[in-house]
Design brief:
The chain is of the alpha/beta class. Helices cover 53% and strands 13% of the residues. The protein has eleven helices and six strands. It starts with a helix and ends with a helix. The protein has a single domain, classed as TIM Barrel (Alpha-Beta Barrel).
């Protein structure tokens, strides 16, 4: 993470880190490393959202401790007090929606101070909605949940986000109001590129 975050920032982009389930101590650390956005999985209740926000935002919004030596160096800020004043506005927190419980608590989660948006995890949500019977990240139930999530985020002026298994899915969700799009995985991209090359070579 140290190397990757620095490389992304030096390349002119904003590094976003998905932390492990419930590991909010790591959330604070990766922000000190220089991350500008956090995605936290399995945020199911307002209490989960408050714990996530507390780790990512400085008082009075949260309880993040101060140790931003690396992030201020990467940002070219010699005065850490400038980062302290601005970090809450520039660090983005996205709460993952992946369960029936999370869907039931959408409004409470998105209205939690310090939560900047929602991020749909379509695979896990499809497993939850089917009681473990199917993996269908673009199925009708997931699509209905996506629309609910987008509406909840838009109502509060916050960010609706989602993972997209293909570029085509990302383009479609963009038209439906999703503003943060995580497109494919590195392995999927490698497979797609290799498959395209092999198709040409086997001609």
């Amino acid at each position: 993470m140290l190397t990757g975050i620095a490389a992304v920032r030096q390349g002119g982009a904003a590094p976003v880190v998905r932390v492990p389930v419930g590991d909010f101590a790591l959330a604070s650390r990766v922000l000190d490393f220089g991350a500008e956005g956090l995605i936290a999985p399995m945020i199911n209740t307002a209490a989960d959202a408050r714990a996530f926000a507390a780790s990512a935002k400085y008082p009075p919004v949260g309880e993040r401790s101060s140790g931003p030596h690396r992030v201020t160096a990467l940002a070219g800020l010699p005065d850490q007090s400038v980062y302290l004043r601005e970090a809450n506005d520039h660090v983005i927190t996205l709460a993952m929606i992946e369960t029936r419980t999370a869907l039931d608590n959408l409004d409470a989660i998105i209205e939690t101070p310090g939560i900047d948006g929602l991020f749909l995890g379509p695979s896990d949500l499809s497993i939850a909605l089917s009681d473990g019977k199917s993996l269908d990240p673009t199925g009708e139930e997931v699509d209905r949940a996506l629309d609910r999530m987008v509406a909840a985020a838009q109502k509060t002026g916050k960010i609706p986000g989602a993972f997209c298994h293909t570029a085509e899915r990302a383009a479609a969700l963009d038209k439906r109001g999703v503003r943060f799009l995580a497109v494919m995985s590195d392995i999927a991209m490698l497979r797609a590129g290799i498959a395209a090359a092999m198709k040409v070579l086997k001609g």
